[in-house]
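Weekly modeling sync, notes
Attendees: S.R. (lead), two postdocs, one rotation student

Agenda item 3: backlog of single-chain predictions. S.R. asked that every request posted to the team notebook include the full sequence so nobody has to chase files. The rotation student volunteered to paste the first one in as an example of the format we agreed on. Action items at the bottom.

Example entry:
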Amino acid sequence: MNVLIVLAIIGVLVLLVSATGGLTLAATGYLIAKSTAKFGSSGGTSPPPQPPQPAPSGDFDAASRTWRFAYGGGIGAGGSPNSLAPSPGFWFDMPTSGDVHYMVCPVNMNLTGKKEIAFSFQMNVSADADFQASDPNEGPPCHVSIGLQRVGDDLATQLYSRWFSHLMMPLQDGAQSFVIPLDTANFGDVGGGLSDPRTPEQGLADCMANCGNLLITFGGKYFAGHGVYLRKGAARFQLQSYIVR
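Predicted structure, as returned to the notebook:
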């Protein structure tokens, strides 16, 4: 924030204190906080997100792009999994301390016209592995699913901003491959649209046209992305392909 603006705000508040016989410390702090919040902490509001770029005309495999952990605890939210380079994909060990919720792949793409996602992964799971859901209202069996997140999603107020596959794939030993069409029969949004006047089809089309992140999410029996951890044993997740076509 511009230092001169800060000094001007503080000067005005000092005059108010003198004129009114003194404001409480809490009231003064509140006014400063409200005033500075209006301008932001770096001289203005945050820049708007960049407009989505056109997606590649053909198929593209997001497994070769950068992925990171998000929203979970203990596995390093914001950190990255281990690369399988030179092959596409990554791997990580399921946590026994903390959990894993989302993996996000930033794309900022217009996916209009794309029809489906082909998703394949491999898991190496010990015989004594005991997967547990992080959400106390959930339980096993635990699953992995895929999804889309709209540019600007704040995880709270934006409707039709996150979509998850109805197909939830079990966390079990071995290789699994699925092809999931990008339509409302196969993807559901957070909150079911609630009061949004748009139809689900319009909501999904908007999310695809303004796709900020591709998602891989982990959860229990019902809720995508609510988190998974290992109570005991060992398990390694390896993404092999995430082809948008």
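Discussion: group reviewed the output briefly. Residues 3-39 form one domain.
Action items: rotation student to repeat for the remaining queue; S.R. to check formatting next week.
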